[in-house]
Amino acid sequence: MSQAARSREALPNPEAGVHQVQIYQNDETLVEAVCHFASYQLQPTEAVIIVVTDTHLAAIEARLTAQGIDLERAMRNAQYNFIDAELLIASLTGSGEFDFARAESDFRKLLEGLLQAYRHVRVYGETVDLLWQRGEKQNAKALEALWNRLLERYSLSVLCTYRMDNLDPAAYNGDIECLCSTHTHFLPSQDPALLEQALAVASENVMGVSLTGMMKSIAKFPHPTTIMPASQASLLYISKTMPVTTEVILNQVRAHLADQNPPSRRNA
Fold first, then answer.
1. For residue 85, which of 49, 123, 121, 130 has the smallest C-alpha distance?
2. What is the mean pLDDT of residues 6-27?
C-alpha cells in the first residue's frame, strides 16, 4: 500500500461540521485524499463540490471514475460540481482585493440550491492553498473563516489541502498553528504510524529517551481545537517546549523516514 493510501485511511468520515486539512508534498497524496473525501460512502442524498486547479482535476476525475463514480450522471444530477479554483480567484479579485462578501454570497446561493435536492454537501477547496502559496496567508485564513461560518449554518463538510512540509522547522513558526486554528482535523503528509515510529527513534537518538509514552498520552487527550495524529501533536509540543532541539529532531525524523521509504519504494 502506498504512503498516500495509508494517509488517506486516516481521514475521518466526511460528516457534517468536519473541516479537515491535509498537508501534502506530492500530487499523489492530494489526489488520494480528495477522492477518498469525495467518494467515501457517498450517499444518493449527498452532493460534492470540487474547487480545484486544472493541474489536479484530470487526475482526480480519473481516480473517481476508477472508483466506480459515474461522473457524467452525477454532473447531470448536480451531485458532482466542479469549480475552477484559478478562475474563482480571478473573478473575486477583479478590484485588486479578494471580495469575501461576494464569495460568501455566491457560495450560500450554491449551497442552498444543492441542499434543496440533497441533505448534505461535501466541499473540497484548493483556493486557500493557491492564496497561501502566493503569500496571501491572511486572505487564506479569512477564506477558511468564511467556510467555518458556512459550516455552522449548513449541512456541510469541508476538506482543504496545503502544500507544506511539516518536517521543515520553519513550519513551526506559526504556519501549522495557523492551519490548526481554522480546522477541526489536521493530517500530516506522512503516514501517521510511520511518523510516530520515526519520532520515537529520533527522540531516543537526540535526547536519549523515546517519546513513545508521551505520544500515547497525547493520543488520549486530543488537541483542544484540532484533532491530529499523536505524532504530529508531539512535534508541535516539542517546537514549543524545546525550540533549540526541534530542528535536530525533525532532521532525524526525516532521515529515518527516508531509510524506511527509499526512492525505489515510494511509489510502490
1. 130
2. 84
